[in-house]
Specification:
Elements (H helix, E strand, L loop, with lengths): L1 E4 L6 H16 L5 E5 L5 H9 L6 E2 L8 E5 L15 E7 L14 E4 L5 H9 L8 H15 L9 H14 L3 H13 L6 H7 L1 E6 L2 E10 L2 H5 L2 H15 L3 E8 L4 E5 L3 H11 L7 E5 L4 H5 L6
Parallel strand pairs: 1-2, 1-4, 2-3, 4-5, 5-6, 8-9
Antiparallel strand pairs: 7-8, 9-10, 10-11
Helix pairs in contact: 1-2, 1-3, 1-4, 2-4, 2-6, 3-4, 4-5, 7-9
Amino acid sequence: MIKVFGHTSPDTDSTGSPIIWAWYLNEVRKTPAVAVLQGEPNTEAAWMLNRWNLDKPEIIADVAAGDQCVIVDTNNPAELPASLAEADVIEIIDHHLLAGGIKTRAPINITIRPLACTATIMHDLIGDDMARAPEGVKGAMLTCILSDTLEFRSPTTTAHDRAVAEKLAADLGVNIHEFANEMFAAKSDVSAFGDDALLRMDSKEYELGGKQLRVSVLETTAPQVLLDRKAALMAAMPAVAAADGADEILLFIVDILREEATLLVPNEFVKQVAERSFAVTVTGDSVVLPGVMSRKKQIIPVLAV
């Protein structure tokens, strides 16, 4: 049984894409496969599962020797199971930069394309067999694309991502704007999460100037709810960083509607990173970054010390 999974702290794409590809392997390729997750899905991903009547995949802590694995929505070993080297990786489908470090036992299929969403790539790979896809698979695919593109607001959005989303929405009889508003409302409801969970909810590990960073992004249509917790979030950062083997946490609160990010600035190091990376002057414990929406395209590539 092939295990299909994405990165730790699964967002919508890393929850939906394993489901999509496991369906394809089972129903089209006739190869037994199962979608699994590396952690609890975020609020938007959980909403997606409920909206399209999809079962929540099993959550795994690791993989074992001999497990056949398909990796989706990442190729970064820091975001993958600790024992991945003992397993048998047979395929990678992703839309992030090539991180390197994964070793395989034989040549494999690797598809990495400069699109906004892994689900868009899967749509293309599945091709004409998309006509066979059930509503839940198409719905997951649409949700993933709208999530990763922030309803086409993100600079990572391509014309192809948009065209695929519009085709899926038409097939499903979904109004994209109304549907996206429901998604973002679910994403913005963080009332049940503690500060440590929020810092880990959507994060990537990144090395900068010899320091290990956890670069966290919270996308919301209600940024003030998070900004009201600013002091508590910053107070929780040292313990979360220490527990996760990081030196610092960079937390960006992305306002989906205003199309800007607010970076919390708990110390001099983060202040230096903010000023050198984004050409801003920091005067308090946060700084607004107009137009910054994408960690992949506008945050990670410009970080500097």
